[in-house]
Specification:
8% of the residues lie in helices and 71% in strands. By secondary structure, it is mainly beta. It has one domain: Porin (Beta Barrel). It has an 8-stranded antiparallel β-barrel with strand order 1-2-3-4-5-6-7-8. The two termini are 32 Å apart.
Length: 175
């Protein structure tokens, strides 16, 4: 797991080089998203939380994203948390100035934990997110993420959970 985190950090630092790209073509060098996240986890019901992402764009259609998601729920006195930290390529279609659709495939890690009456347990695993969304452009530096929908595959402690969905909504700042 430490090697994977080191690789993720290296790729995130490498994507910072995208900030040196000339923006005279009209695309943002970097985008930062923050917003609400609704997650439906297989066998675990629904959870609410937040989603944060940072993209470094190499040109008007290709970028690299780092995504951090967190979902929380409490049922019958049991509090459950699920965190995903992923990175990967993002493809955007910037043909229309009013909106920007995108798709991404992100890989990384997952941390799930639960607590009940002072007892707690947690587990780490692998996460794969595939999906996309649409940003409604307000101006050159601001957009509203109308929707981001992701299918999530989570694998940890010998089990795989593949019937997971994450929906995110929020604000995108463009630099």
């Amino acid at each position: 797991m430490r090697k994977f985190i080191a690789l993720a950090c290296f790729l995130a630092v490498l994507s910072v080089s995208a900030l040196a790209v000339d923006t005279s073509t009209g695309f943002p060098r970097a985008e930062v998203f923050g917003g609400y996240q609704y997650t439906h986890l297989e066998g675990g019901g629904s959870a609410n939380g937040f989603n944060f992402a940072a993209n470094g764009n190499f040109n008007d259609w290709f970028g690299v994203a780092f995504d951090l998601g967190s979902a929380y729920q409490s049922v019958g006195g049991v509090s459950a948390n699920n965190y995903t930290y992923t990175f990967g390529p993002v493809l955007s279609l910037r043909a229309n100035k009013a909106y920007t659709p995108f798709v991404h495939a992100l890989i990384g890690g997952d941390h799930a934990s639960a607590s009940f009456s002072g007892f707690s347990a947690g587990a780490n695993g692998f996460a794969l997110l595939a999906g996309g969304g649409v940003d409604g452009n307000v101006n050159r530096n601001l957009a509203i993420r109308v929707v981001q929908a992701d299918w999530m595959l989570l694998h940890g402690d010998g089990g795989t959970s593949s019937k997971n969905v994450r929906l995110s909504f929020g604000v995108v700042f463009k630099f």
